[in-house]
Write a structure and sequence with these properties.
alpha+beta, Immunoglobulin-like, 2 domains, 5-stranded mixed sheet, about 40% helix
């Protein structure tokens, strides 16, 4: 029961990536050494409290000499331990970004309160973007270029990599590699405002073939409606304020304020991990985003019940 929080999809003690394994090992070494130091200090303290005080006259000089030896030894041990931990931390940190030629490069832009992921290619025409969900190939080096457009955020996926801040006006770089397939939860780890705790994302590590298929699908334009309800939803989206803030590739909607919705129906969650991606959740979010996530930048758009039903159907169809 005491170790129940040490596993799962968001735990630094359940590493599934090269960088996370290095950090886990460093943590264990530091904890082990500090535990031994604490134990040694407690033993000396108990010995000092319990030892006999009845010393013969004239023993003061020998006692002082013995004390100087103990103190000198303790100082030397402290210097060696701190130096060793510093060197170990330095080399571990340097090894976290050792990849020179990453297989995948992703520009990460943090915003209040969601994540924008732009997959970069040597051919800019092949670039595409998603929101709040990253797909990566297992066993490949992934480099994320971290930016912020408003306040300081922090990119943290404890099962795969360390923590690194996203600072306005500055680019930081983090490299990591997933050793096995799975779904890993990430979280903003720097207080960034009212909805800081609701700024999560997921990394889906999958086989290289599955990743290529996913990336190929993401580069396509949004699916064309095939039913009357979804066609009506597309018309509602174009007629309302939605198109001014969001992009759906293949349509006239080219807004950049909010997340790209071209393939929103394929994502696991909406609102940066707040809600499971279902038609009901989509309808609830569209109807009143400020109740679900107060302070976010999405306004309440007046819709009739029919328009809300049609628009949520269209969003769900964008796979």
């Amino acid at each position: 029961m005491l170790l129940s929080g040490c596993g799962g999809i968001q735990s630094a003690l359940d590493p599934q990536g090269h960088s996370a394994i290095l950090l886990r090992d460093l943590i264990l070494v530091i904890v082990a050494i500090c535990s031994l130091v604490w134990l040694a200090v407690m033993i000396v303290l108990v010995w000092a409290l319990l030892r006999r005080r009845d010393r013969e006259p004239g023993d003061g000089q020998g006692s002082d000499r013995g004390m100087r030896i103990w103190v000198s030894g303790a100082v030397a041990a402290t210097v060696l331990i701190i130096s060793g931990l510093t060197i170990g931390s330095f080399y571990t940190t340097r090894g976290l970004n050792g990849a020179k030629n990453p297989d995948v490069t992703i520009r990460v832009r943090a915003q209040q309160w969601w994540w924008q992921f732009i997959y970069e290619d040597t051919d800019p025409a092949r670039n595409f973007q998603t929101a709040n969900e990253l797909h990566i190939p297992v066993g490949k080096e992934v480099r994320v270029r971290l930016e912020s457009v408003d306040v300081i955020h922090s990119f943290w996926v404890p099962s795969l990599a360390g923590k690194l801040d996203l600072i306005p006006g500055r680019e930081n770089v983090l490299t990591f590699r997933a050793e096995r397939s799975g779904v890993y939860r990430g979280q903003c780890a720097e207080f960034c405002g009212l909805q800081h705790s609701h700024m999560a994302f997921f990394i889906i590590a999958e086989s290289e073939e599955s990743y290529r298929q996913w990336a190929g699908a993401q580069r396509q334009s949004g699916a064309e409606p095939v039913e009357a309800e979804t066609s009506a939803g597309k018309a509602v989206f174009a007629a309302r304020q939605c198109a001014a803030c969001h992009t759906i590739r293949g349509t006239a909607a080219a807004g950049t304020t909010g997340p790209d919705l071209t393939h929103i129906g394929s994502r696991r969650t909406i609102a940066a991990g707040l809600l499971e991606n279902t038609r009901g959740s989509l309808a609830a979010w569209i109807a009143d985003p400020q109740t679900l996530k107060p302070g976010n930048n999405m306004p309440i758009v007046p819709l009739s019940s029919d328009e809300l039903r049609q628009l949520s159907a269209y969003m769900e169809s964008l796979k």
